[in-house]
Write a structure and sequence with these properties.
Helix content: 25-40%
Structural class: alpha+beta
Distance between the termini: 25 Å
CATH topology of the largest domain: Chorismate lyase
Mean pLDDT: 81
Order of helices and strands: HHHEEEEHEEHEHEEEE
Low-confidence stretches: 240-245
CATH class of the largest domain: Alpha Beta
Number of domains: 2
Number of helices: 6
Largest sheet: 6 strands, antiparallel
Radius of gyration: 22 Å
Strand order of the largest sheet: 4-5-6-9-8-7
Length: 250
Amino acid sequence: MGTTQLESVPEPKYWHLKTVLSDALDSEFAVGEILPNERELAARFGVARATLRQALEQLELEGRLQRRRGVGTTVAPPRVGVAVGDPEHSWPGADDAADTWEPVECEEAAPPAAVARLLGVAQDTPVHVVRRSRMSHGQPLAAELVYIPAESVPGLSAIDAPSGAARARTVLRELRRLELEGREQSVELGSARADDARQLDRLPGAPVLLVTTRYVAEGRTAAVAIATYRADTCRLTFGDAGAGVQLLAG
């Protein structure tokens, strides 16, 4: 890893250093390799350790590095593709090998105001809330809440499955009795809430990607799903018309 002169660079030193370090990761280091310690790196690049830490933190945020207690800073593995919104992925929990979501629990609760508007229900109207999680290579990748009004699952009985993951599967199975007519998706940057942060093994407030999907059946909104993806391990790619959106995650 070479040295560089940073004194005359107009942008913040840590940001330029981040670019230099990123290039070095591509050319000089292998996945899983441990970087030199902070003292060595700071001396090599002629920067203060505080500046170096800022650069390392930014690279960690971007998913280029992993910093683990007792191990050090290592080069993160490459990202792998996880499809979102592809034509073959229809209802939540569909019987499809490509569906890697795992039901966690289900409860009845009033939806947030924005979700209530999408569902066309009063904000204080209880709906079924299914929580699901998504893993990649044994690591938490995303957490999702699926909001389903009672009228979308009219055949559901309280005795079908009383609680937990079993109840979640039953609600989703009943939802799929409706014929899906269409869906709309949006993606935005957000911050992890406390409960999502726990599932994703991140700190509250960490940057996340929020994928909101509105499912339409029988001429109305039958369900709304909000998936929270780790922003440090995901990137978006947009294909040709009709190809949908893909989230690439590591």
